[in-house]
Structures are given as structure tokens and as C-alpha cells.
Design a protein that fits this description.
Blueprint lengths: L1 H18 L10 H46 L1 E10 L5 E11 L6 E3 L2 E7 L9 E5 L2 E2 L3 E11 L3 H13 L2 E14 L6 E12 L8 E7 L10 E9 L3 E14 L2 E13 L2 E11 L1 H8 L2 H4 L3 E13 L2 E2 L1 H8 L3 E6 H9 L9
Parallel strand pairs: 1-12
Antiparallel strand pairs: 1-2, 2-7, 3-6, 3-8, 4-5, 4-8, 8-9, 10-11, 11-14, 12-13, 12-15, 13-14, 15-16, 15-17
The protein binds 2-acetamido-2-deoxy-beta-D-glucopyranose (10 copies).
Pfam families: DUF3712
InterPro entries: DUF3712, Tag1
Keywords: Membrane, Transmembrane, Transmembrane helix
Length: 352
């Protein structure tokens, strides 16, 4: 029995001693024991300290720095000064963007070039309509980022839809999204960050505010020749320059088709666009309409324009055509005055 106990005790002791070897002389006075312990195991503490410092540095670099880098990218402001959409072809465009990126400049860091997509923020699905290559930048306070590239339109539906929104809406939200890498100066490592900026931009607002002046009717025009000439002043509240080409619109007074109107070689620039227009109008229909009780008093008719054809260098540009035909643009035309100055007759109201 006692034999067995001894064995058990021995076993227990052995187990304990294996685990708590460093504290075995715990029976000795505490202070002395600790010093002795320190003397013997200083290297372990040093190791722990070094590991701690290394860990802290690692955490800062691998967790803190990426977080800060992402925060700085999030805080950066992207502003666009101008966009040119030129060399417009059915399947490609040349896109030029003048933009600035503003940061607080507190971190010096190089940001890699990256491919970003653009999509309509407020259209569910957020399908990209364009891919753009963004150049490498640094963390400077104020940077010019000018881009010029030939872009293939890969998703025609998405690009057509963007053009419909851009033509119709007063404002629209476009998001630029991409993944890139940031290299803070002084560190050799690069960290992945997400670049996502939503830009609230002005659309064309269906050319609201367009005016038509100097209208002249040519009654001697042969059939198929334009019988109406005028100057249109088309406002472009956006910062886009668009190479549209020959744009033809079907004109309506209420639901009556009164013929076609063409704006040749339309290059729409920001601000005011004074362009010549020609039209092949159904003069009988126009005369009938202007004499109805609705319009005869003022002679001013809100003419509705719906895109019928957009042709640039012989090719149809479906995306602009969609933009100009999805909604009617309404332009008030002083038909009464045009008739008076061209034909010398005054529009009269029907006698009742
Ligand atoms: C960018 O700025 C340059 C110089 O002012 C100008 O010539 C060019 O048309 C601008 N491009 C765009 C897209 O605004
Ligand atoms: C870049 O765009 C800015 C306008 O944002 C313009 O002042 C500058 O001249 C442009 N630079 C080049 C090289 O086109
Ligand atoms: C953008 O590029 C990616 C990969 O190159 C491609 O899968 C995607 O369809 C492109 N999107 C658009 C809208 O062009
Ligand atoms: C923008 O215009 C499109 C097409 O007319 C319309 O469906 C959409 O609701 C508009 N979106 C906003 C946010 O105004
Ligand atoms: C765009 O975003 C802004 C700010 O997030 C919001 O106020 C606005 O309603 C959005 N839609 C349009 C069409 O501007
Ligand atoms: C169109 O412009 C007129 C003034 O030119 C303005 O009163 C009206 O609110 C505008 N409509 C839209 C939808 O912006
Ligand atoms: C444009 O006006 C015509 C003629 O009134 C009409 O038939 C057509 O539905 C209108 N289109 C839209 C999108 O309102
Ligand atoms: C108007 O133009 C369209 C497209 O060019 C054409 O299909 C249509 O026949 C024209 N309509 C009239 C009345 O000239
Ligand atoms: C517009 O049409 C006219 C006459 O058909 C043509 O000479 C001209 O080249 C066209 N312009 C464009 C930009 O396609
Ligand atoms: C009438 C109109 O909306 N005009 C605007 C056209 O665009 C420029 C800027 O690109 C604005 O300053 C105008 O107010």
C-alpha cells in the first residue's frame, strides 16, 4: 500500500517538476528567487520583448498601414474638369478626362496604375459601361490626372443605358471602381486598396432651355429638300464634349408628326451650342396646328423632338441614338413669328 503511494507521489512530483521547472525553487524567498530566475531566463524575456516589438511593427505595417492607406484613398477627392467623347464609332470611342485628385498630403505614397470600371450608381445591377486605365499617382496634395485612351465598348446595353440617363437626367451618379496597390514611401511592401468614388455629375437634362431663332420658311424648296432653316441654341449643363455627328429628329406637335429636323456635324460642347438646323416640315400640318385654339393666340408651339438617326462618318451610333430617342426633347418654337416674317401672313384664330 505505502509502496503504491510512494510511486504515486513520485509520479505526481515528476509531472509537476516537468511543467514548473523554472519555479521549482519557489520554496526560497520570493525576491531572491525572482532574481535568480531572471538571471537564468533573461534571454527568454528578451525574446518575448523582441517578439512583441516585431509584432507591434508587423501589426502596424500589415494591419495599420493598409487600414490607413485605404482610409487615405477613401478620403481623397476625385473631381472632374472635363470629359471628351470623340472619334465616336459604333464599337469604340476616344475618352479623354481631365481630373484632379486631392488628398491631405499627410502620407507620401505611390499608387499603382489600375483598371477601373464606371457604372451608374443608382441603377440596380450596377453593370459597368466602360473600362478605363488609370495612371499611377502619388499622394501629393493636388494632382492632375489627365487620361486619353481609345476604348472598346464591350457592353453595348450598359453603354446605351448610360447615354439614356446622361441625356435625360438633370444629375446622375457615376461610380468609378477598381482595385490597386499603394506603396507608402519608406516601406518596400505594397498594400492592396480599393478605389471607389461616386461622382454626382450634371446630365444633359433633355437640352432643357433650347431656343430656336432666325427661323425661315422656304416655300419654294423642292420636295425632299429642307424647307425650314434656323439657328438653335442648345445648352449643355454637363462637362462633357460629345462628337455626335449628323443628328436627325422626328418632330411632333402633340401627336402629329410634322417632319424631320437635322443638326449637321454636331459637336456638343459644355455651355452654349449655337448650331444651324434644317428641317423638312409638313407645312400644311404645321399651318393647321398653329391655327388651333391651343396655339393661335401666341403662335408658340412646344415642338417635341425624338432622335431618329445619329450618323457619324457614315456609321450609326446606336448609343447616342438611344440617348436622343428614349425621351422626347421639348423645344418651344415661335412658329407664328416665323410664318409672319417668312410669309408675311399673320396667324389667326379660328372664328367660332
Ligand atoms: C484638358 O485640358 C487641356 C488643356 O487645358 C485641354 O486642351 C483639353 O481639351 C482638356 N480635356 C478635357 C477632356 O477636358
Ligand atoms: C490636364 O488637365 C488640366 C485641367 O484639368 C489642364 O490645365 C492641363 O493643361 C492638362 N494637362 C495636359 C497635359 O493636358
Ligand atoms: C472590363 O474588363 C474586364 C476584364 O478585362 C472585362 O471582363 C469586362 O467585361 C470589361 N467591362 C466593360 C464594361 O468593358
Ligand atoms: C435617369 O433617367 C432615366 C431614363 O430616363 C430614368 O429611368 C431614371 O429614373 C433617372 N434616374 C434618376 C436617378 O433620376
Ligand atoms: C446621387 O447621390 C447624391 C448624393 O449621394 C444624392 O443626393 C442624389 O439623390 C443621387 N441621385 C442623383 C440623381 O443625383
Ligand atoms: C427647364 O428650364 C426652365 C427654365 O429654362 C425651368 O423653369 C425648368 O424647371 C427646367 N426643367 C427641368 C426639368 O429642369
Ligand atoms: C414622344 O412623343 C410622341 C408623339 O407625341 C409619342 O408618341 C411618344 O410616345 C413620346 N415618347 C416618349 C418617350 O414620351
Ligand atoms: C425622318 O428621318 C428618318 C431617319 O432618317 C427616316 O426614316 C424618315 O423617313 C424621315 N421622315 C420624314 C417624314 O422625312
Ligand atoms: C453629315 O452629312 C453630310 C451630308 O450627307 C456629310 O457630307 C457629312 O460628312 C456628314 N457628317 C458626318 C460627321 O458624318
Ligand atoms: C444653360 C446651361 O445649362 N448652361 C450651362 C452649360 O454648362 C456650363 C458648364 O459646363 C454651365 O456653366 C452653364 O450654366
Amino acid at each position: 500500500m505505502s509502496d503504491k503511494q510512494d510511486t504515486e507521489n513520485a509520479e505526481v512530483y515528476q509531472t509537476e517538476s516537468r511543467v514548473e521547472q523554472p519555479t521549482v525553487p519557489a520554496a526560497a524567498p520570493k525576491k531572491k528567487g525572482f532574481l535568480a530566475h531572471l538571471k537564468r531566463f533573461w534571454w527568454a524575456y528578451l525574446l518575448v520583448l523582441i517578439c512583441g516589438v516585431v509584432l507591434a511593427v508587423c501589426l502596424t505595417i500589415f494591419v495599420g498601414v493598409p487600414k490607413i492607406a485605404q482610409q487615405k484613398v477613401n478620403d481623397a477627392k476625385l473631381e472632374i474638369q472635363g470629359v471628351n467623347v470623340i472619334n465616336t464609332k459604333p464599337n469604340s470611342i476616344t475618352l479623354q478626362i481631365n481630373s484632379t485628385i486631392t488628398t491631405d498630403g499627410s502620407i507620401k505614397a505611390n499608387i499603382d496604375a489600375f483598371d477601373g470600371v464606371m457604372y451608374l450608381e443608382d441603377l440596380p445591377g450596377q453593370t459597368p459601361f466602360l473600362n478605363i486605365s488609370f495612371p499611377a499617382t502619388n499622394g501629393d496634395k493636388h494632382q492632375l490626372v489627365n487620361i486619353s485612351q481609345d476604348i472598346t465598348i464591350e457592353d453595348h446595353d450598359a453603354f446605351n443605358t448610360f447615354n439614356i440617363w446622361f441625356a435625360a437626367n438633370q444629375t446622375l451618379n457615376v461610380t468609378v471602381y477598381g482595385k490597386t496597390k499603394v506603396k507608402p514611401s519608406g516601406l518596400s511592401k505594397k498594400f492592396g486598396v480599393t478605389f471607389k468614388k461616386t461622382i454626382n455629375m450634371n446630365g444633359l437634362n433633355l437640352f432643357n432651355g433650347t431656343t430656336v431663332s432666325d427661323g425661315k420658311i422656304d416655300i419654294s424648296a423642292k420636295k425632299g429638300q429642307p424647307n425650314f432653316k434656323a439657328t438653335a441654341d442648345i445648352p449643355n449643363a454637363s462637362y462633357f464634349t460629345l462628337e455626335i455627328g449628323n443628328a436627325t429628329f422626328t418632330n411632333f406637335i402633340d401627336n402629329t408628326n410634322i417632319g424631320n429636323l437635322t443638326i449637321p456635324n454636331l459637336l456638343l460642347v459644355p455651355g452654349s451650342n449655337k448650331v444651324p438646323i434644317t428641317a423638312d416640315l409638313d407645312q400644311v400640318a404645321v399651318l393647321e396646328e398653329v391655327q388651333t385654339p391651343k396655339y393661335c393666340k401666341t403662335g408658340i408651339i412646344p415642338v417635341k423632338l425624338k432622335g431618329a438617326a445619329v450618323v457619324n462618318d457614315g456609321q450609326t451610333l446606336q448609343y447616342f441614338l438611344d440617348g436622343l430617342s428614349a425621351n422626347n426633347e421639348t423645344v418651344p418654337m415661335d412658329i407664328g413669328s416665323i410664318i409672319k416674317s417668312s410669309l408675311g401672313t399673320t396667324v389667326s384664330c379660328p372664328k367660332s
